[in-house]
Amino acid sequence: MDRRILLIDDDRSLLDVLEAELRRRDFEVKSVTDPQQALELFDREDFGLAITDVNMTGMSGVELCKQLVGRREDMPVIVITAFANMETAIAAIRAGAYDFVTKPFDMDELALTIERALRHRALREEVKRLRKAVDNSHRFEDILGNSPAMLKMIALVTRVADTETTVLITGESGTGKELVAKALHAKSGRRDGPFVAINCAAMPENLLESELFGHVKGAFTDARTSRPGLFIRASKGTLFLDEIGEMPAGMQAKLLRALQERTVRPVGGDQEQPFDTRLLAATNRDLETEVEEKRFREDLFYRINVVRAHVPPLRARGSDILLLAQHFLDRYAAQSRRPVLGMTSAAADRLLQYPWPGNVRELQNCIERAVALAQFDQIGVDDLPEKIRDYKTVRINIESNDPAELLPMEEVERRYILKVLEAVGGNKTLAAQVLGFDRRTLYRKLERAREPAAAPRERALKTSDIPDEPTSSSEKPADPS
């Protein structure tokens, strides 16, 4: 925060007093008695804020304020006047003044006004920086992010977008898997065709079959007319099967046959119908584990898992959290016509500390709520949901020299395994790769890791349990071997 202040008043004695008081409060101050000289100095040097008197020889403070703001609209100007009337106040505000104070004034109150103005400027600069980061961030349609994990994912889907390849999009709920699917469609040669999506977890097997493959008239009760399925309705376009890991086993076999033959048979029909549709699928499950545990067909898995795009959880995206928060803040402030510009540093810190189990969807909901509740031009900690503002991080302490605060290796390993598993969205295959284990070893350790941990008092190393150091070789304890 720039604490350099430019003072302008044709009363040198008042300037000397102000200069001394402000320097005592850790501000850097330059003062001039001539408004024209102030403009020349302003053009040569940077200041965080200007304070000007209203009544001066050669140029009024209101006119000087107008010229200063015209040169640099982001710099706040405080106007001092000896005449506390509404006309002067309105003139100062219209000229672009941040605030005005009347003589005689209290120095502590003036210092508070200055601090508030400087914080306001710092906020506006941070908002500009974040908005510029949003504009310059790596975008893939409506997906934005600058974190390494997101850049890797965006690079992959950019390469496969304009192909006919089937893409399996993995990631936790709320990470934006459908956004990735829509972006793949929009960047493909099928962009002029339809994008049709269905949630495989939202309907029973018989209804899902009818939705995907269609049905003929009289196939079942209420089937008064024939109806094409989504494979046919998505012709020349893209069909997106969301939550494919939830698909019933019987339906998996029928889907596999349709993908192999590139034809579908409507429910109740006896004719195969060819389709020309690109398939995209998404799941928040670890399909390798589902295959091993016989809940998902291995042959269908290999059919849909040609290219895998993993959407990282929000907690693994670092400063993307603030990037997305500012993006949502601008959107909801504009929609609700509320003058909210940004967030306090304390609120930003809470957003970065929170693990976001609901991912981007939860962040979006949080920011919409905060904009609605904000009482000022920035979101504060009190505007955030209670679970976010009161969240406390749990860290493994390896720096302490107090034996009572240190953990046994088994507990360190247990916590780290669970942390890695959380970071990869529950994907055991990826977790095993990160940890350097084979999958069986990971499963065995997970069974132990999920057991209740021993009480800290039982685990902690007690200093009384440490034997005294021998004073001579003859006093060394016997070799236990």
Describe the structure.
α6 (148-161) runs parallel beside α7 (177-186), α17 (409-423) packs across α19 (439-449) and α18 packs across α19 (439-449). The model is unreliable at 452-481 (pLDDT under 50). It is elongated, with a radius of gyration of 33 Å. It is of the alpha/beta class and 481 residues long. The chain contains 20 helices and 18 strands. It folds into 4 domains: 4-125, Rossmann fold; 139-310, 3-Layer(aba) Sandwich (Rossmann fold); 314-389, Helicase, Ruva Protein, domain 3, CATH 1.10.8.60; 403-465, Arc Repressor Mutant, subunit A. Helices cover 46% and strands 14% of the residues. A 5-stranded parallel sheet has the order 2-1-3-4-5, with helices on both faces.
List the helices and strands and how they pair.
Blueprint lengths: L3 E5 L3 H13 L3 E5 L2 H10 L4 E5 L7 H11 L5 E5 L4 H9 L4 E4 L4 H30 L1 E3 L2 E3 L2 H14 L5 E4 L6 H10 L8 E5 L5 H9 E2 L11 E2 L1 H4 L4 E5 L6 H13 L1 E2 L8 E2 L3 E6 L3 H6 L5 H7 L2 E4 L9 H17 L5 E2 L1 H9 L5 H15 L4 E2 L6 H4 L19 H15 L4 H8 L3 H11 L6 H4 L22
Parallel strand pairs: 1-2, 1-3, 3-4, 4-5, 8-15, 8-16, 9-12, 12-15, 17-18
Antiparallel strand pairs: 6-7, 10-11, 13-14
Helix pairs in contact: 2-3, 5-13, 6-7, 13-15, 17-18, 17-19, 18-19
